[in-house]
Structures are given as structure tokens and as C-alpha cells.
Amino acid sequence: MPSRLPPHLSERVTRVNQAPVGDGAFVLYWMRVGLRGFENPALDAGLQLAAALDVPFLVVQGLTERYRFASARIHHFILEGAWDVAAQLAERGIAYRLHVERPGHRPRWLPELADQAVAVLTEDLPIEPLRRWMHGLAQATETPVWAVDTANVVPARLVEGRHSRAFKFRDAIEDELDARIGLPWEEVGADVIAATRRGADDVDLPFEPIDLTTTNRVDLVASCAIDHSVGPVPHTQGGSVAGYARWNRFLKRIGSYAKLRNNALKDGVSRMSAYLHFGMVAPTRLARESAARGGAGADKYLDELIVWRELAHHWCRHHTAHESLDALPAWARQTLQAHARDPREVLDLESLQRGQSGDDLWDAAQLHYLRHGELHNNVRMTWAKAIPLWTESPEVAARTLFDLNNRYSLDGRDPSSVGGLMWALGLFDRPFNPEIPILGKVRPRPLDHHARRLDVPAYLSYTSRSPYGSLRVAVVGAGPAGAMCARTLYDHGLEVTVFDKGRGAGGRCSTRRTDGPTFDHGTPAFTIRDKRVGRYARSWRQRGVIERWTGAFGTWSDGQFEADPNALPQFVGTPGMSHLLKHLHRDLAVQLGTRVTEVRREGETCSIRTETESIGPFDVVVVAVPTPQAIPLVPDPALVARLEGVVTTPVWALLTQLSEEPPVDFVAASLVDHPLAFVAREHTKPGRRADVPAWTVHATPEWTTNHLEQSKEEVAAALGSILSETFGVQASHVVYTSAHRWRFARVATPVGVDCLLSDDGRIGVCGDALVGGGVEEALLSGMAMAGRILSDQHVRQA
Asked: What are the φ/ψ torsions at residue 6 (nearest 5 degrees)?
């Protein structure tokens, strides 16, 4: 193929597999991180090849849910880029299709489409999982696959040797750079494009393409199974239009770059890294226009853009395990391992993610990540150097660095990010003496030293501001869904107030405390299947908020217990289930004992009415209570119509303390064909009094319905009798007994979506009424609700 291309394109093409060019129907450009319609080598190479072979040319962009740290933040940024690409390619007459993976739209479309093509081109970005996916396609198809370097000024395949120091890499590319930096880009002519357009619309697609001109982007993103607790950033829109607008503003002041670039409180840097990562802007254009300006500022910027940035690309090209300590220089690995057992203050991941380390500079930097999706590079160097000091080992430090950067930063998952993060552990550097604890000979960068040259209070004020403005949100309901929604919005800088009628936060996670045992009389435990909850759960365990409940789980039938060998791990809050809710509500404004009786729309805002007063105004009100309680509160007929189909069932719970319990060998059991649905031995849970036997028993919805309006005393006596008959509990051994009615305990028929938001973005509904299930599903619904609000505001502010 390179022989069919002009030199400025052929030098950028690398063969991925050895399949010969066959009889395919078209040339396919699988667009991933080259989201631009101009000065795009992969696009131009595909057009030239299609013209040479006299076949149509088709651009297909796929947005998967399966990329690492997939979130609403990154999805919105990519889709904004897709919008610009679609417009640019339509203007040029180039066929373009977009596939967005989501429920009901998850076909294995790429291999099928590749098999129809005469050749497939994609971007050559040496980063995981992009590299793995590219090679996976190359193995899965008999169609030739070619990788095109769209990210570097000097094509990576032309750089000989392996380089890990900037000065050596600078020397290695000097001649090639001088020969290219001032060259204008030769765009493919309209005649070539016209020749490749014929027949492109007739390609049989194995998916339903997205029409961005008619699709509601908020709804589209909300439908994807991604992390909705990381919201988009209104002041940083994706796409070439926004990218080049930002670039043009910077170009006017590039002369001061060398002087101002290290001060995070000065507008001295380009902030182009996210646009470069997704290929929304051309590095060749940035380099060409910088060189044309000249001067010390432009020279320094070019050194960062080309030498340091492309060194990281070069290094990733030669080190596939680029997030592993094995990829570090030998001296760095050795010194970090030699100090792996040095004493240190270990912080859990959740505290780090939320900027709660206790150091003002570091916390300000992390808030910049969390709320604004970026971090000033000079501060990032200091930020990164602190991570090894707060994590258990060098291996955990590396994982934490990539988690914190790639989860929140729009420029994460890029070779440049890899280079910067691994530099904190010794990459691209030399040993430093004297040797110090934890870091050994790795160059230190103390937080207090950096704080002396930066106005930290001013920086914290700058980074802690919300990118969504002064948005006020009321959340009605302090259960898992409401708590997670409020927590997520608060983390993004919104002003949130939670209201609940109960004396304590909990909802389904309520805990009853007595003079002896505690009873989790709502949800006895919960499972964690989804990685979006799992990332929080790991920190909750580290902080002692939750713990795994071990023992035998299974079913009780006909007087026999059968353990379930496939039972999922069960987790409980410690010392009670409500402790998880207290943790989520930490730092939030929570008004307990407040029964909300009405939610009102008042012009552009809302208010809530309690039994004693009107509170507001609020920009958004989220209702996170059981459906029968939510319907009278929701002032939106369309939302009410969705909720009216929800069916809930009640459960009576029996709480009983025993002086002596019957001999059973389970910690919890579900009962089959029995008036009791579930029994749990509370004292077997971690963090409880093991010396005080206590059982919580749930009746079936059917039994509960038949006894729904009986008194607590009558129900306690009836369930106690059934418990005695079933397990041999003697009445003389009962020390304490009580009953609690959960009128809306379970959702038999949910709405079937994660959350609901009114058309004007003012009223939201979340909770188990939407998705059914247990605690994890409620937490995910709360995340989705927060994400929906943030996405809606992002689009409204665009």
C-alpha cells in the first residue's frame, strides 16, 4: 500500500497483519483517535488508496462502553468531536458513520465490516487497549489492516533505536524534524474524494448508525453502561472547532510560554493535550504554526509538544506493559523495591479521588482533576510524586497514579500521560542522591517546596469552583440512591441539600440499635457485581465502612439447609448497614426528620414544602423515595406516567434477640415454599456483638400482604411462632422481639431505566422503582441520576 501513496503519507503507514489485498468492496477507515476531518494522515491515506483501487471509501467511528475508565465525561467529549467530524466530512463529501455501543446495540460489527473491505486503516497509537484491539482485529479478519501515525510530527516508525532520555531523543529526530516542521499539509483533492464517494452509501452496515443532528446526546450518553459519576466539563467542549479556538487564543500569547508555563495561576499554557489525545487537532499544524511564530516561547513549546510528547509515544511503542514497574529503568525498580517496606501514611483511594489527603496543594490539584478534567502539568509533576508516599507499595502507587489520572483527566489514557506518570517513579530520569525513605533514589518533589512558589489558597479557590456554576440541588430521600446522587453532585462542586423524614439516614440500609444487638432490619447485606460500585467498595473496605460477611449462605427447605457453592460475596456496613449511608452523607447538608409534602415548580426554579415551611429556591429537585410516596411529590405528568406502572410489595420484618439459639450451620438462608422468605443471624456479621445471638427474619410479600394492617405486636407474635416451628427457637430463649413493616420493600415491576429527568431538567427521579434490585442497583441509579443532571447542564451551558 505505501507505494500507492505520496511520501508524506507512505512514511506514516505500518502493516499490522500480512493479509493480501483481496476483492473487498470498499476501503474502511476505522476512526478512533483521529477525530478530525482535515490534516488527518489516516483519512488521506484511505482516500488515496480507495482512489487507486477504484472502490468507495467509508469512515466508521465506533464508541464503545468498554474502554478503560469509560465515563460520561469522556463520552461527551468524544461525541462532541464526532459532531465536528461528521460536519467536516459531510462538507468534503466523505461518507461517515457512527456506532455507539449501548443496550440493544452491541453487535460484533467491526470484524463483519472489515471482512467486506479491501483494506482497513486505523490510527497507530501505541497505548492499551487501543493497540490490543487493533491487533485483535488484524487476527480476526483476512483483510489487510494498516496503522497510520496521526499523532506525531516525526513519524514514529522513522525513529531508530530505543530512547529513554529526552536529550538523546532530541538528537535522534533533529534531522527528520527540520525536514518537516515547516511543510504545509497537502489535503486530498475534491476530485479524488468524488471518485471514492460513489457507492459508499450502499455499504451494508451491521449496525444502526447514529444521526447526531437528530439524536439527544444527553439521552444517548445516559443509555450507555459507563461511569456516570464522572461528569462532563462544560468549559471544555470536545471537537476540532473548540480545540482550534483554544489553540488560536494560546497562539497569540505563545511568546510568554517559557516565562509563564510553570505558574498554575497564570494563563500561560495551551491546554491542548485532550484535543491532541483524541486527534481533534493536528500536531503537525500546531508545530507548523508555532515554528512560524518563533522566539523563546515558541521554541520551548515545540520542545514540549515534540520532544517530550513524542518521546513518550516512542517509549510506549517499545514497552507494551507501560503501566508496570517492569517497564521502569533497572535502577528505579531496584530502589523502589528496596524501600517498599518503609513506613508511610497510607490513604485509601476514595480519599485520594475526592481530594481529601489533608494537604491543601495536593487536594487542590486533585479537585482540578475531579471537577475540571485536567491538571496543570507543572502541578501534576508534584501531585504525582506524592502518590508513592501515601500508598502501600510501588505497585499500588503505579495503579493509583493511573486510576486518578485516567479516570478524571480528559487527556488520560495517552502515551503522554504514561510518560508523565511513570516519570514520577523514575522514567526518563536519573538516580538522585542522597537516598530518601520510600522513593529511594527517585527524584523527590516535595509538596511543601512547591507550595512556597504558588499561592495555594488562591489555587484551591480556583480549582474547587464548580464548572456548573452556582447550581442548587435538593434530594428528597436519604437512602442509597439519594445518598449516592447527592454525594456525586457534591463532589462536582454543586450545592446539595438532602431531606429525609426519618430520624436517621438509611432507607433500606437502616439499622435498629438496642441495648444488646443491632439489627439490619431492612437490607441484611448486599453484593457487588458492577465495577462502577466496586471502585468505591474497595475504599469502603479499606476504611472499615463495609466488610465481607463470611459463612454459609444457601436455602432452607423441609428442615434442611443446603449451602450455595456459587453464592456471591456478601457485604455489610460496619458496625451497621446504616454506616454506609452515614459515610456517603459525610460533609453533606442533611436535614433529617423533615417530611417533604410537595415539590413546586416556580418559574425557572423549584421549591419544596415541608409540614412547616417552604424551602428553596433549587435549580433541580431529585425525588429518591418509594414510588407511592414519589408520585404525589413529582410535579411532572410525564414522569408520573412512567412511575404509575411500578408495582411494589411489602415485607414484615421480625427482630429477635435470643439467650440461646438453635443449632444451625448457616449465617443466612432463603426459605423455599414457606411463609418466611429469609433469615439472617445478625451476630455473625463483622463488627457486631458475637456473644449476643440476634436474628432478623423477613416474611414473604404474600404473608405480609395478608397481615399488612395488623399491629406490630400481633405480627411479632405470629412470626415468632413460625420461627419457633421452623427452627426450634424456644419462647423462653427470646430476650427481645419487635416487628417492622416495610410497606414498599420490594419492586416487583420497575420502570426499566436507571433514572428519569424532566424535559426542562428541573425534576429527577431515581431509586429502586426505576431499576429494581438491591443496594448496588440503588447506588447505580443514584450515580446515573447525578450523571444525567450533570450531562443536562453540560449541554445547556454549551
From this structure: -65, 160
pLDDT digits (tens, 9 = 90+) for 46-77: 999 999 999 999 999 999 999 999 999 999 99
- Output the nine-digit C-alpha cell for 741: 413493616
Residue 137 cell numbers, joined: 482485529
Question: What would the grid cell of residue 675 be?
Answer: 411463609
**What is the C-alpha to C-alpha distance for residues 723 and 668, in angstroms, rounded to an integer?**
14
Amino acid letter, 170: R
CA-angle at 577, arms to 396 and 530, nearest 5°: 50
Q: Is the pLDDT of residue 1 over 70?
A: no
Instruction: Name, in order, each residue with C-beta under 8 angstroms of 574's C-beta and a sequence gap of 6 or more.
Output: 544, 545, 546, 547, 685, 686, 687
- In the block, which residue shows the cell 450533570? 790
Going by C-beta distance under 8 Å and a sequence separation of 6 or more, which residues neighbour residue 334?
none
H or E element at residue 361: helix 360-372
Looking at residue 507, its pLDDT comes to: 78
Residue 596 contacts residue 633 (beta carbons within 8 Å): yes
- Residue 704 φ/ψ, nearest 5 degrees: -60, -45
Each residue of 564-622: pLDDT tens digit? 999 999 999 999 999 999 999 999 999 999 999 999 999 999 999 999 999 999 999 99
Question: Residues with Cβ < 8 Å from 690, sequence gap 6 or more?
Answer: 683, 684
Q: How many CB atoms lie within 10 A of CB 162?
A: 13
**β-strand pairing of 620-623 with 763-766:** parallel
User: 3-state class of 253 per DSSP?
Assistant: coil
Measured CA to CA, the distance from residue 34 to residue 38 in angstroms comes to 10
Q: pLDDT (tens digit, 9 = 90+) per residue, 649-692?
A: 999 999 999 999 999 999 999 999 999 999 999 999 999 999 99
* Sequence-ordered list of residues with C-beta below 8 angstroms from that of 196, at least 6 positions apart, any chain: 27, 47, 50, 51, 55, 56, 57, 94
What does pLDDT average to over the chain? 95
Q: What is the sign, positive or negative, of the torsion defined by CA atoms of 62, 63, 69, 73?
A: positive
Grid cell for residue 147: 496503522
Total-model pTM: 0.95
By DSSP bridging, strand 472-476 and strand 495-499 are parallel
The confidence score (pLDDT) of residue 23 equals: 85
Label the pairing between strands 495-499 and 145-148: unpaired
Q: What percent of the chain has pLDDT over 90?
A: 94
355: cell is 481530594
Helix pair 166-180, 309-318: axis angle to 10 deg: 110
Burial 503-529 (b: 16+ CB within 10 A, else e): ebbbbbbbbbeeeebbbbbbbbbbebe
Res 3 pLDDT > 90:
no
Q: Answer for the pair 246, 270: CB distance below 8 angstroms, yes or no.
A: yes
Q: Are 80 and 107 in contact (CB under 8 A)?
A: no
What is the SS3 string spanning 257-304?
Answer: HHHHCCCCCCCCCCCCHHHHHCCCCCHHHHHHHHHHHCCHHHHHHHHH
Q: Could you tell me the pLDDT band of residue 505, with boundaries at 50, 70 and 90? A: confident
In the chain, the amino acid numbered 433 is N
